[in-house]
Specification:
9 helices, TIM Barrel, binds zinc ion, alpha/beta, three-stranded parallel β-sheet, 229 residues, single chain
Length: 229
């Protein structure tokens, strides 16, 4: 049993170590900073989100879908113009946890590459941060992302898609404030309850002494290398 445990520990240590440089779901626990992230846009809530962020002087990270950037380039450009950080959420919203077709790896590669190209062509931004739809983080996904020069960023807390009151949602987000927190929200939301408390939430984060930064600043990440598109 001890031997099995040792073997398991070695495998786990190796896996944790090898993924550590590509995959993050939290910032450093000793640093009093948090990041706000918005997925699935640009979308119907983007404009209002940008207004609130501007009013509060906050820079956030937007994980955009290639297909949305294509169909609503003007809104995507506004996010860039406001100097927010742009990450990729792949081309379309494929759930790779339930994707059963044999070409899964190729589908991932294509989805990442397509989004990278569209974001570069339409917005002039080189992306190196990405988030798979549904937070897919299995080793083969991380490997595909890493090969294309991406860090994969998940979140420490997010629930703005859940069917609860805005008040309850606000309380849960507030309770999740901690060192290195990465908050997930959506600017193409199933509901827009987040908009009713985003401004107050930002104030509350700061009142607790936290700085709000982009994901790359939270994690001290820089572009790994230029990739061919
Ligand atoms: Zn998504």
């Amino acid at each position: 049993m001890k031997k099995i445990n040792t073997v398991f520990t070695i495998i786990c240590l190796f896996a944790c170590f090898s993924n550590a440089k590509t995959f993050y779901a939290n910032g450093y626990p000793e640093v009093k900073k948090v990041a706000l992230t918005f997925d699935d846009g640009p979308g119907k809530a983007t404009k209002r989100v940008l207004e609130i962020l501007k009013e509060k002087n906050v820079k956030a990270t937007f994980f955009m879908l290639g297909i949305r950037v294509e169909s609503d380039t003007e809104t995507a450009k506004k996010v860039v113009a406001d100097d927010h950080e742009i990450g990729s959420h792949t081309y379309e919203h494929v759930n790779f946890y339930s994707y059963k077709v044999d070409d899964k790896i190729r589908k991932m590669e294509r989805g990442i590459l397509q989004a990278k190209k569209i974001i570069k062509d339409k917005l002039g931004v080189d992306t190196y941060l990405m988030r798979f739809p549904y937070g897919y983080s299995k080793p083969e996904g991380l490997e595909v992302a890493q090969k294309q020069g991406y860090y994969v960023i998940n979140w420490s807390f997010g629930m703005d898609w859940e069917n609860v009151s805005a008040q309850e949602m606000h309380i849960k987000y507030k309770q999740a404030i901690k060192n290195g927190a990465i908050f997930l929200m959506h600017d193409l939301p199933k509901n827009d309850k987040i908009l009713s408390f985003l401004g107050d939430f930002i104030d509350e984060i700061r009142a607790e002494g936290y700085e709000i930064v982009t994901v790359s600043e939270l994690l001290n990440l820089k572009q790994k290398y230029q990739t061919e598109i």
